[in-house]
Amino acid sequence: MKAELQRLLKNLKKEIVQDIPDELAACEVCGATDCNSDEWIHCENRIAHAECLKALAKRKET
User: Does the pTM of the predicted model rise above 0.70?
Assistant: First the structure.
């Protein structure tokens, strides 16, 4: 019974959990798909893009 339940759970996981396609996982700013967390946090392109978006949002508010 336990083996059958484990097999069922494994099969369910295969059906539900899938890899994200590269085009969806790519960075919206530079298109990179292989940045680690530290690189992403310190990415100058991403930070500059976020600041630009904030500035545009402030302009729209006024």
Answer: no
